Amino acid sequence: MKNSITILLLLFAVTLTSAQVRQWTLQECVEYAVENNLTVEQFELDLENAKIDKSDAIGNMLPSLNGSTSVSSNTGFSINPTNNLPTNSTANNMNIGVSSNVTLFDGLRNMHQLNRAKMNAIANQYRLDNLKDDIRLNVANAYLQVLSNKEQLKTFKAQYAVTEQDLKRTKELVESGVVPRGDLLEIEATAANQEQQIVNGESNVLIARVNLAQLLQITDYENFDIAEEEFDIPPSDILKNSPKVIFDKALGFRNDIKFSESNVDLAEQDLKIAKGAYLPTLSAFFQYGTRYSDVTQIPDGDGIPYTPNLTDQLWIFDGISYGAQLSIPIFNGWSTRNNVMRSKISLEKAKLQFKQDKLDLEYTIQQAYVDVSTFEKAYIAAEKTLEARRLAYEYAKERFDVGLMNAFDFSQAQSRVENAQADVIRTKYDYIFRLKILEFYFGLPISLN
């Protein structure tokens, strides 16, 4: 019974630990970051505001309807509201009214406002999607940095394991008098340096993990880690396309370009709205009103004055008014002209920004294309260097084992191998990231497969 309880407790502890430390894949990180980023949530609220602006624009074209009522009491001298004669008594009065106004023509400004609200909603959607694109790239870069640092840490530990074996063997040779004690001291220094590399490597992994967790808005850094996977250089045909082909395709789907272009459309609508103020405004109105007063006196059928009750007075004194109003702008201190001029300037600025954004995209793609080619060559060169350093190290080890090389020269050969291994890991992930950036501009999703 006691053994069974112990086993259950161990299983529970293992299960709890596994549940706490989640191994995140790149796809999971990207999706989680997009769904939980605070700036994304803010931009989504801006998008909701833009949709409300559309509702406002529609409402401006509909008739307004307002009701009003007032109740008052006058003591002493006052004017009887039913006959406009002076009275010197206490009077209780009530007025009820309904009014409606509608704009028939305002220089098409309401229509342009509606079109602008629709365009603004689309522009905010482009801005939101562009933010998500940036988050995906940033998360991919941070994820690859964790992978790179983890691989380097594994390499440091593997190198230290080899050095430990050399250290053990050298101690035996020193004790037997085959090699001088200076060789042992040199290898001990190499081992100490590698231990420091391991400490720094662990720190780099931790910092990279924290950086990635922050991009995901995760604060439980201790229980956050990425999946233990090794990635080779993914196959890609992206360099078969010229920078011009990639740029032309990017123009058709990049959200930052669409957002910039939509800002030009918004500026054009703003100009139309400003010009609409030059034209007359035609509106129509309708009003219905009635009243009641307890000092009202009207003759009955026999000519005897009496005070009608509330219901009768509301029907007796009701009335309607309706009509149209035309407002023609003549002079308003040049405010309309100045608004039009400002709108024209804003339109030109939007057009210039659109051109600049396209130039920036073209430059970025050209740079990304060159980076892919450059880092590919750097990675290939690093692999060749590592192979050569390994051969030199093996030769040096053979000479060191038979006493034909001192420990200092041997440690230098080993150090060159370590540096070459670090260069291979660094250039590998630099190349992968640049490759994914270029593919991203070509419309391919971020994936390490």
From TrEMBL:
Keywords: Cell outer membrane, Membrane, Signal, Transmembrane, Transmembrane beta strand, Transport
Subcellular location: Cell outer membrane
A Pfam family matched in the record: OEP
Signal peptide: 1-19
Single GO cellular component term: cell outer membrane
Keyword Chaperone: no
One MF term in the entry's GO annotations: porin activity
Homology family: Belongs to the outer membrane factor (OMF) (TC 1.B.17) family.
Name this protein carries in UniProt: Outer membrane efflux protein
Species name: Allomuricauda ruestringensis (strain DSM 13258 / CIP 107369 / LMG 19739 / B1) (Muricauda ruestringensis)
